[in-house]
Amino acid sequence: MPIDTAAFLSSLDDRVEDIVDACTRCGKCALVCPTPALAGIGAVSNEALTGGVIDILKDMPHSLEAETWARACCGSGFCIDACPEGINPRFMLTMARRSLNERRPADDARAEGRQAFKAMQSGVRMLSRLQLAPELLARINPAAAVDLVRPVGVAAILLIELAIQQGWSIGVGTARLHLDRRDLAGLPQSIFPIH
Ligand code: SF4
Ligand code: SF4
User: Could you identify the atom of ligand 1 that is nearest to the CA of residue 167?
Assistant: First the structure.
Protein backbone atom coordinates (compact mmCIF):
# COMPACT_ATOMS: atom_id res chain seq x y z
CA MET A 1 0.00 0.00 0.00
CA PRO A 2 1.53 3.39 -0.95
CA ILE A 3 2.43 5.59 1.98
CA ASP A 4 0.53 8.86 2.06
CA THR A 5 3.34 11.11 3.27
CA ALA A 6 1.18 14.20 3.70
CA ALA A 7 -1.35 12.28 5.80
CA PHE A 8 1.43 10.76 7.88
CA LEU A 9 3.06 14.15 8.56
CA SER A 10 -0.30 15.64 9.38
CA SER A 11 -0.96 12.82 11.88
CA LEU A 12 2.40 13.62 13.51
CA ASP A 13 1.42 17.29 13.73
CA ASP A 14 -1.86 16.31 15.37
CA ARG A 15 -0.04 14.22 17.95
CA VAL A 16 2.36 17.08 18.66
CA GLU A 17 -0.59 19.40 19.26
CA ASP A 18 -2.08 16.88 21.68
CA ILE A 19 1.23 16.66 23.54
CA VAL A 20 1.58 20.44 23.79
CA ASP A 21 -1.95 20.64 25.20
CA ALA A 22 -1.53 17.75 27.64
CA CYS A 23 1.99 18.32 28.98
CA THR A 24 2.02 20.08 32.34
CA ARG A 25 5.82 20.59 32.24
CA CYS A 26 6.02 18.63 35.50
CA GLY A 27 9.48 17.28 34.65
CA LYS A 28 8.79 13.69 35.72
CA CYS A 29 10.07 12.32 32.42
CA ALA A 30 13.33 14.25 32.73
CA LEU A 31 13.68 13.06 36.32
CA VAL A 32 14.00 9.41 35.25
CA CYS A 33 16.02 10.14 32.12
CA PRO A 34 19.75 9.34 32.36
CA THR A 35 20.66 11.60 29.46
CA PRO A 36 20.73 15.08 31.05
CA ALA A 37 23.53 14.05 33.43
CA LEU A 38 25.48 12.36 30.62
CA ALA A 39 25.01 15.37 28.34
CA GLY A 40 26.26 17.84 30.96
CA ILE A 41 22.89 19.52 31.57
CA GLY A 42 22.06 17.73 34.82
CA ALA A 43 22.09 21.00 36.78
CA VAL A 44 19.05 22.32 34.93
CA SER A 45 15.73 21.63 36.65
CA ASN A 46 13.57 18.87 35.20
CA GLU A 47 10.68 21.31 34.85
CA ALA A 48 12.84 23.74 32.87
CA LEU A 49 14.07 20.97 30.57
CA THR A 50 10.61 19.71 29.76
CA GLY A 51 9.25 23.24 29.47
CA GLY A 52 12.01 24.00 26.98
CA VAL A 53 11.05 20.98 24.90
CA ILE A 54 7.44 22.16 24.79
CA ASP A 55 8.73 25.57 23.66
CA ILE A 56 10.57 23.83 20.81
CA LEU A 57 7.37 22.05 19.82
CA LYS A 58 5.50 25.35 19.88
CA ASP A 59 8.16 26.89 17.64
CA MET A 60 9.02 29.40 20.33
CA PRO A 61 12.41 30.59 21.60
CA HIS A 62 13.81 27.77 23.74
CA SER A 63 16.73 27.02 26.00
CA LEU A 64 19.95 25.52 24.66
CA GLU A 65 19.69 22.84 27.35
CA ALA A 66 16.29 21.69 26.09
CA GLU A 67 17.75 21.43 22.60
CA THR A 68 20.72 19.47 23.96
CA TRP A 69 18.39 17.06 25.75
CA ALA A 70 16.25 16.55 22.66
CA ARG A 71 19.27 15.93 20.46
CA ALA A 72 21.00 13.61 22.95
CA CYS A 73 17.99 11.37 23.66
CA CYS A 74 19.20 7.84 22.96
CA GLY A 75 15.78 6.21 22.88
CA SER A 76 16.24 4.13 26.03
CA GLY A 77 12.57 4.47 26.95
CA PHE A 78 13.04 4.88 30.72
CA CYS A 79 10.67 7.84 30.49
CA ILE A 80 7.78 6.07 28.85
CA ASP A 81 5.99 4.97 32.02
CA ALA A 82 6.84 8.14 33.92
CA CYS A 83 4.29 10.53 32.46
CA PRO A 84 1.09 10.94 34.50
CA GLU A 85 -0.60 12.46 31.45
CA GLY A 86 -0.08 9.41 29.25
CA ILE A 87 2.38 11.17 26.94
CA ASN A 88 5.22 9.18 25.43
CA PRO A 89 8.15 11.50 26.26
CA ARG A 90 10.49 9.64 23.92
CA PHE A 91 8.15 10.46 21.04
CA MET A 92 7.90 14.02 22.36
CA LEU A 93 11.68 14.42 22.13
CA THR A 94 11.73 12.83 18.69
CA MET A 95 9.21 15.41 17.54
CA ALA A 96 11.32 18.17 19.13
CA ARG A 97 14.29 16.98 17.04
CA ARG A 98 12.10 16.98 13.97
CA SER A 99 11.04 20.52 14.73
CA LEU A 100 14.66 21.63 15.26
CA ASN A 101 15.76 19.96 12.05
CA GLU A 102 13.02 21.61 10.06
CA ARG A 103 14.27 25.02 11.15
CA ARG A 104 17.84 24.48 9.98
CA PRO A 105 19.06 25.85 6.68
CA ALA A 106 18.98 23.11 4.02
CA ASP A 107 22.75 23.31 3.40
CA ASP A 108 23.52 22.71 7.07
CA ALA A 109 21.15 19.76 7.18
CA ARG A 110 22.73 18.24 4.06
CA ALA A 111 26.29 18.69 5.41
CA GLU A 112 25.32 17.12 8.73
CA GLY A 113 23.59 14.26 6.93
CA ARG A 114 26.72 13.58 4.87
CA GLN A 115 28.86 13.61 8.01
CA ALA A 116 26.50 11.27 9.86
CA PHE A 117 26.44 8.90 6.88
CA LYS A 118 30.24 8.80 6.77
CA ALA A 119 30.42 8.05 10.50
CA MET A 120 27.82 5.31 10.15
CA GLN A 121 29.65 3.82 7.16
CA SER A 122 32.88 3.67 9.08
CA GLY A 123 31.17 2.20 12.15
CA VAL A 124 29.39 -0.49 10.10
CA ARG A 125 32.67 -1.41 8.40
CA MET A 126 34.43 -1.80 11.73
CA LEU A 127 31.59 -3.73 13.32
CA SER A 128 31.24 -6.10 10.40
CA ARG A 129 34.97 -6.88 10.52
CA LEU A 130 34.77 -7.32 14.26
CA GLN A 131 32.10 -9.98 13.91
CA LEU A 132 34.01 -12.11 11.41
CA ALA A 133 36.22 -14.97 12.51
CA PRO A 134 39.88 -14.13 11.74
CA GLU A 135 40.13 -16.97 9.17
CA LEU A 136 37.02 -15.78 7.33
CA LEU A 137 38.21 -12.18 7.35
CA ALA A 138 41.56 -13.35 5.96
CA ARG A 139 39.74 -15.11 3.09
CA ILE A 140 37.45 -12.20 2.28
CA ASN A 141 39.87 -9.34 2.82
CA PRO A 142 43.47 -10.44 3.39
CA ALA A 143 44.73 -6.86 3.68
CA ALA A 144 42.31 -6.10 6.50
CA ALA A 145 43.14 -9.32 8.27
CA VAL A 146 46.88 -8.66 8.64
CA ASP A 147 47.02 -8.24 12.37
CA LEU A 148 43.97 -6.00 12.08
CA VAL A 149 41.43 -7.98 14.00
CA ARG A 150 42.48 -6.75 17.40
CA PRO A 151 43.02 -3.06 16.43
CA VAL A 152 39.71 -3.02 14.59
CA GLY A 153 38.03 -4.71 17.52
CA VAL A 154 39.45 -2.21 19.95
CA ALA A 155 38.50 0.69 17.66
CA ALA A 156 34.94 -0.62 17.41
CA ILE A 157 34.76 -0.99 21.16
CA LEU A 158 35.91 2.58 21.61
CA LEU A 159 33.39 3.76 19.03
CA ILE A 160 30.54 2.02 20.87
CA GLU A 161 31.78 3.39 24.18
CA LEU A 162 31.78 6.87 22.72
CA ALA A 163 28.23 6.30 21.47
CA ILE A 164 27.13 5.16 24.92
CA GLN A 165 28.89 8.08 26.60
CA GLN A 166 27.40 10.60 24.20
CA GLY A 167 23.95 9.06 24.42
CA TRP A 168 23.87 8.23 20.70
CA SER A 169 21.32 5.62 19.83
CA ILE A 170 22.68 2.06 19.78
CA GLY A 171 20.87 -1.23 20.17
CA VAL A 172 21.01 -3.36 23.28
CA GLY A 173 22.41 -6.17 21.12
CA THR A 174 25.28 -3.93 20.05
CA ALA A 175 25.96 -3.02 23.64
CA ARG A 176 26.03 -6.67 24.68
CA LEU A 177 28.33 -7.49 21.76
CA HIS A 178 30.51 -4.65 22.94
CA LEU A 179 30.90 -6.25 26.36
CA ASP A 180 31.61 -9.69 24.84
CA ARG A 181 34.23 -8.25 22.51
CA ARG A 182 35.88 -6.39 25.38
CA ASP A 183 36.50 -9.80 26.90
CA LEU A 184 37.92 -11.15 23.64
CA ALA A 185 40.14 -8.11 23.19
CA GLY A 186 41.48 -8.54 26.71
CA LEU A 187 40.15 -5.17 27.84
CA PRO A 188 38.43 -4.48 31.17
CA GLN A 189 34.66 -4.11 31.04
CA SER A 190 33.20 -0.74 30.17
CA ILE A 191 32.68 1.82 32.89
CA PHE A 192 29.83 3.51 31.00
CA PRO A 193 26.27 2.64 31.95
CA ILE A 194 24.34 0.77 29.28
CA HIS A 195 20.63 1.46 29.26
S1 SF4 B 1 14.01 7.76 25.66
FE2 SF4 B 1 15.14 9.69 25.63
S3 SF4 B 1 13.98 11.02 27.01
FE4 SF4 B 1 13.32 8.92 27.43
S5 SF4 B 1 14.61 8.21 29.13
FE6 SF4 B 1 15.64 7.56 27.24
S7 SF4 B 1 17.07 9.22 26.73
FE8 SF4 B 1 15.58 10.04 28.24
S1 SF4 C 1 5.74 14.76 29.13
FE2 SF4 C 1 4.55 14.08 30.90
S3 SF4 C 1 6.08 13.67 32.49
FE4 SF4 C 1 7.08 14.91 30.92
S5 SF4 C 1 6.82 17.03 31.63
FE6 SF4 C 1 5.11 16.60 30.24
S7 SF4 C 1 3.47 15.91 31.60
FE8 SF4 C 1 5.34 15.77 32.80
Answer: 7
